[in-house]
Design brief:
The complex is a heterodimer of chains A (246) and B (610). Chain A has 246 residues and is an alpha+beta fold. Chain A has ten helices and seven strands. Chain B contains 18 helices and 20 strands. Classes of the chains: A alpha+beta (246), B alpha/beta (610). At the A-B interface, helix 1, helix 2 and helix 3 of A face helix 4, helix 11, helix 14 and helix 16 of B.
Amino acid sequence: MSERIFRVWRGTAAGGSFVEHRIEVDEGMVVLDVLHRIQAKQANDLAIRWNCKAGKCGSCSMEINGRPRLACMTRMNLFAEGEAVTVQPLKTFPVVKDLVTDVSWNFEQNKRIPPFRPQPRGADGQHRMQQADVDRVQEFRKCIECYLCQDVCHVLRDQSRKDAFVGPRFMIRLASLEMHPLDTEDRIPAVRKDFGSGLCNITRCCTEVCPEHIEITDNGIIPLKERVVDRFYDPLLWLRRTIFRR
Amino acid sequence: MLNIAEIQTFEHDVLVIGAGGAGLRAAIECSARGLSTGLMCKSLLGKAHTVMAEGGVAAALGNVDRRDSWKIHFRDTMRGGKFLNQWRMAELHARESPDRVRELEEWGAVFDRTRDGLISQRNFGGHRYPRLAHVGDRTGLEIIRTLQDHAVHKGFGIYMECTALDLILDGGRIAGVLGYWRESGRFVLFRTRAVILATGGGGRAWRVTSNSWEYTGDGTAMAYEAGAELMDMEFTQFHPTGMVWPPSVRGILVTEGVRGDGGVLLDSKKERFMFRYIPEKFAAETASTEEEANRWLAGDKQARRPPELLTRDVVARAITQEVNEGRGSPHGGVFLDIASRVPADVIKKKLPSMYHQFKELAEVDITRQAMEVGPTLHYFMGGVRVDPDTQMTSVPGLFAAGECSAGMHGANRLGGNSLSDLLVFGRLAGVGAEEYVKGPGAAPRVDDDQVRAAVRRATVPLNRESGANPYLVHEDLQAVMGRYVGIVRTEADLQTALKEIDRLKADAATVKAAGTSQYNAAWHEALDLRSLLITAEAVTRAALVRQESRGAHTRVDYFGEREDWQKVNVVVHKGAGGAMETRVVTRPEPPAELAAIAKASIEDLEAGRV
């Protein structure tokens, strides 16, 4: 057991500041354990959002020493013995209180995505898909909606373009639908126009912070961008469309 | 006096409380049937505990072994539940779960596939055939996300981070629900004709648990306070394999899929001890040597199943005994080894989240080292007593589905039967609610005095000048339940637990939540204490009544199953004087067809003779 220094942001939408806590830390603890101990012993009303404590639900997203992380999967031995740990809410979303932010914008985006529309079942009443054809979709469906990718996305974080771009999480959701072998809906025009695929400039920051190690940029966003390009910007296709229209 | 008109109010035909698998499926059903539907949940949508389910959803699809059928699934479920399940519920579950799984596929779920492109199924404890449709070891996430993405396009009301406090009654039937927004601390009133509880269990009353903070028994407690009956509360399932080290992750689940895919349990000398714990009843269907168990795993249909796949109650007790007799691992568990049995790349493909969980939280590489595991409180077989067909409780308009309801699993639940339970009975609760809402009877009236009383009760911890720390009262309760109401129970321990719970009730009546009502974790904790204490007391009292050992309920002072106790269920309810009372109810005789299936030999069932 050793005493560590935690600097925890406390406040509301109206403003706030860092509060320093000296707290005992045991072997094997993660940041969320330490925050719970602070809550129980020193700051009863500290607001933290969390659920599973096992990296499966994506609730306890926050910025720890400047990096977006899940508090439940951030072990204390990641930090040097004397290093202070600074914990603050996600920057890209409005603060509700302390470490809790208002992420409702994300739920609004999900509603805008045209739902799954399957092809009819086969004659035997079954849907058939080969494992090799669903591996990629399953990779995207590992997403736990922690929104760490949304938090680091330059378009959302620095350029504040929530009006024009749905962010990496929902590009991945779009990709999981577009690449679903049974799906019959066409979302490519919307990927470009409504969901803003062109705004992503492929810095891969989202991929870097993904706790599920989803290749967001390379496997999801870039293939979607390619589909958009094939559809709308391919000169040969454009020529053919123009000719046949006449 | 508080003006009720100032409380934010919503009106619905049905309000579903809880947005895990059961709540989401129930809300989808209600909405599809044209009812004005609301869904409230304590967390954000998609974060409920269903997300933690790993191994799979049990359904007799017969994709991997064509010999499977609903009858064999039903028989496995009854045997696993030690014949204390409600016969009708186990029947409905076994018959309807295949359709519920196929429906998820229709809504976009992407299960792992067989070679010919169908939904793949894996082996699990107590299931005769590979029966669990799965997605690696993150099946719960797949199910909740599928339901969530389907639900958000249905246009019903979703109230996130909104906690229910009390049911409002009108002449004994449901009239509304009072809750509060966690974010602002403001109260919210739902006027509704029916309520479907889908609030899960109460595992947070124990310290070593796989359950998240939400599992405080809210629905169980609200139903109890409203006069509904609780049943089978003594049956609390300890999952045999939770993490044991480091201390901060003690209790986090290690999926049964590890054993289903070939993992074995070893004692401190690295010997497979489960061969020594095979109950007589299961001996005919369990391998007697390691050689036979290995043949079964390799696909030999003549070989019998490894003993590591016996039901959870058996495995949890065996581990406890090994540890108590000094043959455990360094941190007080036993070893679970898959590294020496399955190639590393297969482990990573089939059990990816287990691989990451151990790597990141315990610095153990499960493709190279054995895990250390021990029992963890995982699931409540008991809960609110419901009608097997409609899911309605004894309170008109009040329904319950999923873990918070009782009857489906009897004395012990089989792995994989929970996810299917959520889907089957979530849907049926929606059907039942429609029938009730469209039935006769004038619209109920919300009684302002009840609302005022509920608001008063909730604000007391904030308004108090000083008082006990709610976190410490909760920790105290967890220690009490872990010590006195654990895997093995005695009369003396249970009596001690009751005295301790009385003391804690007094403490809980004095807690102080410092700060304002806005997103105040201390206040939330203070309010959850009532649910936790009612749930804990109900478990303890029911455990005292049942003087035998059956399934997940083990009494060292009443060894073994007793025939008389197979004929009854223990019911808990609020007495006229306000104190908790118990009574024993006789179980209905099973229909002859179901009794014949449950008792048939496996050969007769496979050959279609029953």
